[in-house]
Structures are given as C-alpha cells and as structure tokens.
From TrEMBL:
It is found in: Cell membrane. It comes from Rheinheimera baltica. Residues 155-368 form the Histidine kinase domain. This is histidine kinase. It catalyses: ATP + protein L-histidine = ADP + protein N-phospho-L-histidine. It comes from the Bacteria. CDD domains: HAMP, HisKA. The chain crosses the membrane at residues 6-27, 73-95. Residues 92-147 form the HAMP domain.
Length: 374
C-alpha cells in the first residue's frame, strides 16, 4: 500500500472538509438561526403594507448580529491556522527523511562506506522506510565490495610477490658460475606456470562476472570431461598423499561450454583435494537423475563453519586463511555452471551431529536449450 500517497490524500481532504464546515457555519448558520426562532404573527400594518418589508427589515442596524463563533473572520483565521499546522506537519514529515537520506548519500560520496540509516527511518511503513532499507542494503553491499577489492589487491599482490621473489633468487643463482643452470631454469619455468595460472584465474572470473565471456552451446560428454579433470588432479593428490576415488555411471550428454564446465569441475575437485586431510580420499560421483546430471565431490575435511556457508560463493572469500589462494575457485565454478543453465550447491556432511566432511553438488540439465551468462 502506498502509505505516503494516502497521507497526502487524507491531509488534503481533511483541510477541505474543515473549510466546508466553516463555510457552512459562517454563511448558512445565521439564516438557520432565524428560521429556527418561534413564529410570531406580524403586526397588522405589516400585513396591510404591500410596498415592502417592515422598516426594521429594511434597516441593517435592526438586523440581529451573528454570535462570536459564527463570524466569518474568525472562521477564516481558524482555517488558515489549521492549514498552516497541517502544512508544517506534512512538510516536516517529508523533509526529515529526505534530509537524512541526503546526509547519508553525502557520507557515501566521501567514502564512508559503513554509513547506515537509523532504525527510526528504516522501521517506517511507507515509501521512505522502504527506500531507507534499500539504501542500507546498497551501502552494505558497497562496503562488502570495497572490502573484497581491498582484500583482492592484498591477496593478489601476495600471491604474485612470492613466485616473483623466488624467480629473482633463482635467476641470481643461475647467473653464478658452477651452478646447475638447467635445474634452476626448470624451477623458474614452474614459477612462471604458477603465475600464468593465477592471472588466468583472475581473468576468467573477471570475464564471467561482467558478462563478456561468449559461452558456447554444444553437446558435452560429461564422463570424459570428469575423467580428464581427475587425471590432472590425481598428480596433485598423489603429491600430498591423498586419494581420488571416482564413481562414474553412464549419463546422457549435456549442452554447454566445455571450457566453463571444465573450469568449474577443476576448481571444485582441486578445492576438495586442498582441504581433505592427508591419507584421506576425495570422492567424485557422477550420476543421472531424470533430466539432470549430477556431479558430487566430497572430501573428509573439517567442513565450513555455519556462519560462513552463505559466503562460500562470494568472490575473494576464504573461510580458512591458512590455505593458499585468493578465494576465486568456488566463485568461478558457480558462475561457470550458471552460465550453462546449471546449479551448484555446497554444504557440510553431517553424521551424528558432527561435521564429517564437505561436499559440492553440480547439476546440469540434459535438455538445456539456452546458454546465457547471468
């Protein structure tokens, strides 16, 4: 309901009603008073005089004066006073929230991203209250985005500084005589590959986030794609004494972009390998349910705290700061899957009230006929 509109409407009609009542009392009240007086037989000469009304009626001085409460000037003053009071209250009702919103916008313009409007404004049940709540949500999201950008700059600079520092040391060692130059060059190449992967990850997220990535719409054999990803991830799992267990059942082909789906599956599996403990396994299960193909990736790690679950797919968010990375893996996976009309969910594996691991489920429609970036 448009509360503000109805307040304007009611104030206008209240003022108009007061004006009508005062006009009624002013201009009709005197006549009504005279008509309500007891009827007295006019004098005989008045009955016989056909030339006009009696002298008392022709002379204004003999007419009865209206009472104090029926004088037009008093009614006009009351009407003006009531109008002024209503106008002032209405102007204050409108100007106060506008002044607060103006000040809040000025604070945002001065980079005060934590600005929030007071509950006295957000709890209102009219358009100003709705606007204030939307403003608080916008300011909170802006503050979160700014914090994410700052965190990104910090994390990216840290991730870039480490391999660059190692490359600088390796380059200095390679320039010295009697050193194993081929081995040093090989290590430098490995650092370059890490840098390239990091830059590619940031670029992929940027393209998916702003919608500049042109997704394809072709048939994909998801089983072959999962096997290809797991073959590459198996090397990483073996190096950290972890296992990768595959449970693949025959499924129908899905439509989408192979590079996007590959990137999503790779990020999810590598993330599971990173967080599962040593000498444990990561389960990769592919199966079909009706018109949906579902890929479930489960680890045996410590899971995620309940307060962090809603932020898992937030860009640059890391639930555990002890691990490397900049927090883009699940964000890229979510945008890549949604670009292929799929869905991705994540949550803890619970057993007897305790967290026994973490799993991510990617579902893709078999009969998808449209691929778009959100």
């Amino acid at each position: 309901m448009q509360q503000l509109f109805w307040r304007f409407f009611l104030v206008f009609w209240a003022t108009l009603l007061i004006a009508i009542v005062m006009v009624r009392l002013t201009f009709i009240g005197v006549g009504d008073t005279q008509l309500q007086r007891p009827t007295v037989a006019p004098p005989l000469h008045a009955q016989l005089n056909l030339l006009g009304p009696p002298p008392s009626m022709r002379n204004p001085a003999h007419r009865p004066k209206p009472t104090f409460w029926r004088r037009p000037l008093l009614h006009l003053m009351l009407l003006l006073t009531a109008s002024l009071v209503f106008s002032w209250l209405l102007a204050r009702y409108i100007a106060l929230p506008i002044r607060q919103l103006k000040q809040a916008l000025a604070d945002l313009a001065s980079n005060s991203w934590q600005t929030q409007l007071a509950p006295s404004l957000t709890l209102r049940r009219d358009e100003f209250g709705s606007l204030s709540r939307n403003f608080n949500q916008m300011a909170a999201k802006a503050a979160e985005a700014i914090a994410s950008q700052r965190r990104l700059l910090h994390d990216v600079s840290h991730e870039l500084r480490s391999p660059l520092a190692r490359m600088q040391i390796l380059t200095g060692l390679a320039q010295q005589p009697n050193t194993a130059a081929p081995l040093l060059l090989q290590k430098i190449e490995q650092e370059v590959i890490k840098l390239d992967a990091l830059v590619a990850q940031i670029l992929t997220f940027s393209q998916l986030d702003n919608g500049s990535f042109q997704a394809e719409h072709i048939d994909i054999n998801l089983t072959e794609l999962v096997v290809s990803v797991c073959e590459d991830a198996q090397l990483e799992a073996n190096d950290s004494s972890k296992l990768l267990a595959l449970q693949l059942t025959p499924v129908a082909e899905v439509k989408g972009d192979p590079s996007l789906i590959y990137s999503a599956i790779e990020n999810v599996i590598r993330n599971a390998i990173k967080y599962t403990p040593v000498n444990t396994s990561v389960s990769v299960h592919l199966q079909q349910y009706g018109r949906q193909v579902m890929l479930t990736v489960s680890d045996q790690g410590a899971g995620i705290a309940a307060q962090h679950l809603p932020k898992l797919f937030t860009p640059f968010f890391r639930a555990q700061s002890t691990h490397t990375g900049i927090g883009l893996g699940l964000s890229i996976a979510k945008r890549a899957v949604e670009a292929c009309n799929g869905n991705i969910i994540a949550g803890n594996i619970m057993q007897d009230g305790a967290i026994k691991g973490f799993n991510v489920v990617i579902s893709l429609p078999i009969d998808s006929s449209k691929v778009q970036l959100n």
